[in-house]
């Protein structure tokens, strides 16, 4: 029998380069050395430059008082609060904008994407025009444009005053749309449960918590009933009528809770030069919300259209031949299958919207770029630390959003065997 | 009993289809009024469209093109179309459109950006239209230096001297790889080029300029602005990021764990942060990262950061192209005995890049739109210029006209590029389904 093993040669330096067994390792070692050298070079330069400027790297400034005001805050904040708290306020504003934007963008995007495939000639054309116009103009331009519309075309608060007011409130004097923002009624509770401090950092309203809990329980119960109805339908072919139970379970406890808490609406009222009371949505928030949503919705609409087109025509025909109407065909047959194609691009559009929300700085909305990367940076002169923290914030948002949505994507993906 | 059954022995002449099924009425019934929901949608759409045009058209056309300030403009509109008419003041566009296009570039030198733009189209054409002669690619290679010289001016010897660096590198590679193998050739070529750039290039430019002074009037970066600036940043960003993006994509697909993790880390980091934070880095931090005393102008710093930004996105586009390639292609290249770089260069990348061209174009569209963000760090791109024009006392109060103009120009550029990319997608489709 011949010896099939390779002749054992003694190791030589050239083998590191020309022997495929070692070359991968050599390249990697060289790569990591180059990378470390680059990083070391950058850090060395940074230290040298910072020393020359006479400042080290320190995050101590986060505990100093911020001494600037933030006009929209979701948690307690005064100008005596720290820079850290200012950053958190900004971060919450970013998240608020991102969540509101994603919701509205999804609604508009799905609507437009479905309508673009409509057989109705004029509707399909209009939706195409909408998509092309919004996709091909920079989002920053849309934001400043929306801001200009809100400021220049809406009535001033003063126009609401007096006998011959030129502007009036909507929905029975409950909603006021002014060039300073939108005033809507706020929920007030006569027998409020108070606030629950969380870790001594911020407070959550117990009323809200109770409301969410009761609503959640109601939703869970209705889901149970629906599943039971599904099971009965599968067993017997007859679906029990459950809608009145579901409505009762959902609305009953919630209404009871609201009654106990003494629920009233705090209406906005014109006092002095401005509206007081109610929830004030600043026009910077509204402009950003609309501009970002409409812009992103155009992209989402294209993704939805692509997803629907990816479902083969046979599925539609099969559903029609089963006697399903077009609306139900769309919601029961086409969209669930299209969802698998739609979700990956949808994730990236959500992330784009979140990142684009940093353009808030152009209209003076105090998001995390405006507080941490704007005023805090300018006041403390800590560019390096501020920008690193800012990037870390966005990176954390991006990575966690994509992690959650990727998990969801894995769940709805077609299981191939 | 006689059979009285009727048997037809000829065909009935076909009747014309009912009026409601053919022609304009039939089309409308099928496409606009096929059901009550569709009818409502149609009527609502028509009403909405008519309303928008009814509001917009008078504003657009009851306008003034000749006034020299907002007040004059309003007076002219009131005089021509009656009091209380709200018309557009297009005069601001007539007066400032050159500024919106070129920024504060000296007016007597507009031929330079114009020529650069035309030459850019020439340089791009062999890449976009494969049936043009391949020799034109040489011009594309020289073009960046030519463009720099035309736009910024100064001595012609500086770009030539930098270009010479590549020639030096090429000769070193050709010489040394023949003697010592390809790897050492490449390393010595790269090292030689860098050494030449750091120590010899500026000296050579100086000496050559003293001997034969050829040059154009220098234009400093602060005068750059408008769509010219957007185009410079966008085009430079995308073309510099293409090689980096390809390298990152290859790195991400590679089996080498460390190389792969460096590439993945870079790509995910850049894609995870907004462009505006990278622009903040350009405006405040970049000088801190570089050796003490380094100071170059803001446009260059912005271009560097935009290049890094675009390269991460391009890497993902190219990775998509690589993933779309059947594994058989990689295996065929391996079985031919080609080494990694040869198989990439000759087999894999030509196909992968062809697939990713539409993606590259749409990345470019996105980048071109994103160049408006530089207005936030104080550069005078079209959006930044609208703010400064509105601050002018003569045009204080102008809002819509400027935005409409800027938006229209962006729309024309981006829309035509996206149409081109769709056309390309169809043309590149070589399969037959």
Describe this structure in words.
The complex is a heterodimer of chains A (417) and B (433). Chain A has helices at residues 15-18, 20-53, 83-116, 121-135, 139-153, 206-236, 243-261, 283-310, 313-321, 326-356, 368-380, 383-412, and strands at 176-178, 181-184, 186-189, 195-198, 202-205, 263-266, 269-271, 274-276, 279-282. With 417 residues, chain A is mainly alpha-helical. In chain A, the strands form four sheets. Chain A has a three-stranded antiparallel sheet with strand order 1-2-9. Chain A has a two-stranded antiparallel ribbon with strand order 3-6. In chain A, strands 4-5 form a two-stranded antiparallel ribbon. The two termini of chain A are 44 Å apart. The model of chain A has no long low-confidence stretch (mean pLDDT 84). Chain B has 433 residues and is an all-alpha fold. Among the domains of chain B are: 26-61; 62-95 and 223-427, Orthogonal Bundle (MetI-like fold), CATH 1.10.3720.10. Chain B is 72% helix and 1% strand. The radius of gyration of chain B is 30 Å and the shape is flat. Chain B starts with 22 loop residues before the first helix and ends in a 5-residue tail after the last helix. The relative contact order of chain B is 0.08. The mean pLDDT of chain B is 86. Chains A and B meet through helix 2, helix 4, helix 5, helix 10 and helix 11 of A and helix 2, helix 10, helix 11, helix 14 and helix 16 of B.
Mean pLDDT of chain B: 86
Helix content of chain B: over 70%
Reading the helices and strands of chain A in chain order gives HHHHHEEEEEHHEEEEHHHHH
Beta-strand proportion of chain B: under 5%
The geometry of chain A reads as: globular
Task: Count the E strands of chain A.
Answer: 9
Percent of residues of chain A in helical segments?
55-70%
- How many individual domains of chain A? 2
